[in-house]
């Protein structure tokens, strides 16, 4: 959920908590299906604008990087260089880079758009043969604790379909 600030987020949560229709049609039916929930607050990093897919369709890659403690002051420049190296290959479209404020700190989420899973795999393979990408990743990976990638296919109701 993209919100302007914590006051806006609190107002939305308060409104939902008092919305009997929302509780009855959404919350009540899904509660038995929820085993656990993870919440965090993340912000779009200052050097990134929220992008849009170039067309409908395609798939999204959600990449979560757990960086070493120290925050962007320690690893921000190297991380940004690695992102820019991937952008410069042109095989993928950056949608956004987000850094956690609350939740597991030093977590960065990057969302990429690709035409298809096969297009993503071929482009990523080419990118990892690009000396600029290899150098940038090598420099940034020294700050990396872990990485997790997920491929997401948007539903018809998604604003990012």
From TrEMBL:
Family: Belongs to the NipSnap family.
Domain NIPSNAP intervals: 4-49, 60-159
InterPro entries: Dimeric_a/b-barrel, NIPSNAP, NipSnap_domain
SUPFAM superfamilies documented for this protein: Dimeric alpha+beta barrel
Source organism of this protein record: Bambusicola thoracicus
Name of the protein described by the UniProt record: NIPSNAP domain-containing protein
A Gene Ontology term for the protein's cellular component: mitochondrion
Gene Ontology biological process terms in this record: mitophagy
Highest taxon above the source species: Eukaryota
């Amino acid at each position: 959920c993209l919100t302007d600030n914590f006051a806006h987020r609190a107002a939305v949560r308060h409104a939902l908590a008092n919305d009997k229709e929302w509780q009855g049609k959404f919350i009540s039916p899904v509660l038995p299906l929820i085993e656990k929930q993870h919440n965090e607050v993340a912000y779009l990093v200052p050097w990134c604008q929220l992008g849009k897919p170039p067309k409908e369709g395609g798939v999204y890659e959600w990449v979560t990087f757990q960086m070493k403690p120290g925050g962007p002051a320690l690893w921000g420049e190297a991380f940004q260089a690695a992102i820019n190296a991937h952008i410069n290959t042109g095989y993928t479209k950056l949608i956004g880079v987000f850094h956690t404020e609350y939740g597991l700190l030093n977590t960065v989420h990057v969302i990429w758009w690709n035409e298809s899973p096969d297009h993503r795999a071929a482009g990523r393979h080419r990118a990892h043969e690009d000396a600029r990408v290899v150098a940038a990743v090598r420099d940034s990976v020294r700050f990396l604790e872990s990485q997790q990638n997920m491929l997401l296919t948007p539903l018809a109701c998604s604003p990012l379909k």
